[in-house]
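I hope you will forgive my troubling you with a question about protein structure. I should value your view on which stretches of the chain appear to form regular backbone elements. Here, with my thanks, is the record as I have it:
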Amino acid sequence: MSMTLAQADAIARLDGHGQAEIVRRGAVPPEALVEAAIARIEAVDGALNSLAVRAFGHARAAATRVDRDAPMAAVPYLLKASLEYPGFPCEAGSRAKQGEVAARAFPLAQALDRAGMVPVGMSTMPEFGLNASGEALLYGPTCNPWDLSRSSGGSSSGAGAAVAAGLVPFATASDAGGSIRIPASNCGIIGFKPSRGWNLRARAYNLVDDILCSDGLYGRSMRDTVWAARHLRPANKDAAVPAGRKLRIALDLTGLDGSGPEAEVDAVIRRAAALCETLGHQVEEVTQPIDRAGLRSGFTTLWDYLGGEVVDHYGARATQVLEPWTLGLAERRARVTPELLAEALAQVDRASAALARFHETFDMVLSPVTASVPPPLGYLAPTRPADELFDALFGYVNYTPLHNMTGTPSISLPLFAGESGLPVGAMFSAAHGGDELLLGLGEELEIASPWADRWPPVAFA
């Protein structure tokens, strides 16, 4: 079917529920949603570089077969380049995996199929998700739709940029150190990281990955985010909480290195705290009783191990096909002793216990997502000397790894922009299993400070 850009733009302004609804009531055929996404991608993604793969033929065929009674019938979405989906490439942002094609779908991808959703392509990401900016040498830089000279974040880089610009209403994302929340903050959308074990399995078993990583779907509205969190949750996970509960919220601005955020970020988080107080929640500025230095050291030790495992896998080919940052992580891993590794794993238990005790007093914590506004492209480039990039990266990613180490849920909400006009996410985190508490607060804050009509400059002409 033919689709004008004006028609595509009108559909793109709807969230996932809105797009599914116009199919359900027969206002448009299922194919219209896919054609609108294709038209938007062709018109906008040249500026963003958010798609690693365009799967338009697959999407058009899938739309003709969709069950119109499915909850998200024919709603288009993007797969992150590391998520296996049969017949799609599985490059994970690396030149080392060019030409690899997935042959299986894990339960998370199967759940998206059952919902009637249609993948129209795959989003860009840094190599193996090991960086917080989408600047993989395989794809080139992915730009922030609010300022094309700045990073969209990582590792769910293209996913965040594409949803923010309205190319698709959903995109899969994964978070082992902030990779859902950082692009959400940078691009001005919602980024929800569920509790450890609270999403369906998305990939093969890996010890460090399974400790740190959670998966989900990006969306622009809380109703989309809540639906996705519940639809992708294992059947034995139930977290109903009373509606309208007033919360005790800890405001903690101290990062893992002991420092606070830059002034522009600080101001946004304090503004979010004030909003919570106007809604009747109690906000108290405190410092969480955790071993920040130990957690930072433990997290970076595990990160070095992830990079080292990648290099081990490619053996003699590694120096020809892997990026300098990945090779640099492997060099760092060579300096990790068994005692340091044991200490990193012990930090997971100690920090989890400390946060569990803390959440007996405080329902949740409000903090920044990152230490600064989205950095310029190049600041976190994988070609920077590894020691320089290490300092830059873990100075920027100074808040999110806490929740990966402890497995606690966390959400970035696009409540306010910074003084520069760039998005700055407000991050709320709860005790393990407190997913519904976070989602409920997100719904309340969306009503109090709506963001549905905030679109980045490149989204619409």
Remarks:
- The two ends are 23 Å apart (CA to CA).
- The first helix runs from residue 5 to 12.
